[in-house]
TrEMBL record:
This is RNA helicase. It is an enzyme of class 3 (hydrolase). Residues 27-198 form the Helicase ATP-binding domain. Residues 230-409 form the Helicase C-terminal domain. Belongs to the DEAD box helicase family. DEAH subfamily. PANTHER family: ATP-DEPENDENT RNA HELICASE, ATP-DEPENDENT RNA HELICASE DHX40-RELATED. GO terms for molecular function: 3'-5' RNA helicase activity; ATP binding; hydrolase activity; RNA binding. Residues 694-741 are annotated as: Disordered. Its EC number is 3.6.4.13. It catalyses: ATP + H2O = ADP + phosphate + H(+). Residues 694-726 have a biased composition (Basic and acidic residues). It holds the Pfam family WHD_HA2. CDD domains: SF2_C_RHA.
Amino acid sequence: MSKPTRLAVKDSEPKHLPIYQHKNKLVQAVRKSPFLIVTGETGSGKTTQLPQYLHEAGFCKNGKIGITQPRRVAAITVAQRVAQEMKCTLGREVGYQVRFDDCTSQETAVKYMTDGCLLREVLADPSLSQYSVVILDEVHERSLNTDILLGLLKNVFSDPAEAAKRRSFPLKVVVMSATLESDKLSAFFNNCPVFEIPGRVFPVTCTFGSAVGPKDVERNFYVKEVVKVALDVHISEKAGDILVFLTGQSEIEHACDLLFEKAENIDYRYDVQDRTVEGLLILPLYGSMPTDQQRQIFQPPPPGIRKCVVATNIAATSLTINGIKYIVDSGFVKQLNHNSRVGMDVLEVVPISKSEAQQRAGRAGRTSAGKCFRIYTKEFWEKCMPEYTIPEIQRTSLTAVILTLKCLGVHDVIRFPYLDCPEERFILEALKQLYQFDAIDRRGKVTKLGELMVEFPLHPGLTRALLKSASLGCQDLLLPVAAMLSVENIFIRSVTWRTLEKEAAKKHRALAEKTGSINDFATLLCVFNSCKSSDRPSAWCKENWIHWRALKSAFSVETQLREILLRLQQVQDFPTESFDGNKSELLRRCLCSGYFTNVARRSVGKVFCTMDGHGSMVHVHPSSSLFEQEAELNWVIFHDVLVTSKTYIRTVCPIRYEWVKDLLPKLHEVDVYELSSVARQEVTEDEMVKWESKEAAKRQQEASAEDVMKKLEKRNTEDSVSDARARYLQRKQQREQRKAL
DNA sequence: TATCCCATA
């Protein structure tokens, strides 16, 4: 395929970007209004150019220009390019800051950063006094941190008089987004002006398939179908590479195997428009793949060979592969959703939204016109796919976010200005959990412990366990575990070949056995320590099928957590406790104080029943050392839940009922709906007394956790939890109902 | 009875 190389070079010159002719008007628009929305498709140049225009126009006299990105790589690469264009050394006038990598200095006037970084800065300095302009980029992606920043910026800077009290000069806020939803954003920021920049994209023609209809939502029928369509494309379409979208690792490897088998039977000398397509290069792509293997994806295929990349959603926004002309879209994605019925965050496969389908199709039109083959029917599109992807803030656990808001002085977390309100139930659930972790008191006020917790970049449950271990003086057990659980999966499972997969599993089993216990958390600790004390850690990883990149980042996270803990122990009067139990139980006892919300008890055979008040039936994931383990392990805690062929719990550890006995009633003592008034901070003394007596009565009623459990088990015999579709439709219906109201 | 979306502090 001939690439328009010269054109591409010319395009990257700032003056040829669509944004250039709007330069003066754009700068004026920022001058005039405290808030401004800028919309433009990818390729309009807004991310790299606008900060430069503002810098040139003298906006950096009083403070910095800060630009947020939802992803680390984006923040770094864009900063590199802008530094180049401004002809300065990266880290001086132009810099970036992401976790573990601060490339800024006193001189830095234009600072690219992740949205999470800016949120941390807000915690330390709510009026953002260092900045003259804050630009939130890629707002249409609706990342959790960006959404919170939107609300905070509106809250703090909407009232000019109030803002003036906080700062010596006004702050300019620019919100950048793809064209969708610009009216909504403008309305959110007091009907502020919208500036539109035309983009430049090539047309992509889309076709619907006939295979996957509304009834196939639940079956993973689509793997076979994408393989068939990809082969059709290979045989009948002009030269150009193929990108296939699937949902997960095992599916992708299965599809690659099928493609390989079937492509062997193709007549490779099939003549397509004067180009002899001799073969098909099949490449899997997913996030947990080793980096060197990922790099292969970007190399152009050998002459005459067509590349076919089978990827997860990683290829939708995070990675751009050149030369893609054809998309095969399965119509599904694996997504982390907060599930009220299961009562926790669950990873599940759901249909993508229409806007996401368009995003996928767009990956074929980056360098020339392309084609997108959707394997699902028009009916599936109309009936099963929502218009937009539900923003993260409406579908994940809000526990950490609510704690952050509370610590920022936002007490009324229900009436906080969300661009899209999460369901009140989700907010109340988060409050309930914070209360259970002792992070807030019964009036919704942040406790001393809560103030300690917000300092840690971890899930609150994990933070709770870590703080427990610190107060017992055994933080060396929990710090590595917390670090390992907050990085990507460290176990490499396979590289397409089944024999090697068995090899990997054998090594991982050996590591689990080395701990002398059956406990996935202990295995993580063991991997961490074994590798750290090894002479050649990267070789050790290779030998044991461990992800070196992931483990390295776990080392950094552990160091960071250790530093935070040390700082807090020096400043605050840190709580201390003594432990008189068996030393070998220490790790598990600490885990219990953060994971008592994730307790399950063996029900029948291999089925476990969760104890969180929802009583879901779950199975131990095959990757766990508890998988297939026998009946004496009756009580377990687990780190997360995953719905694929079954509802699986992952990273599991057996516990004794006595350890959680006193904590479990706490799960049932607070009625979520009664927290509503606490959330609003409108509780009168009378209400408080009434509420507390009611709770006391309830506690008496549910004398022990055993009783609760029996009740739950009874209720759950008819309940199928793996019915992802029913839940999906239920959520959809609820959303529509709310909209109608 | 058989397997792990993507990000982020």
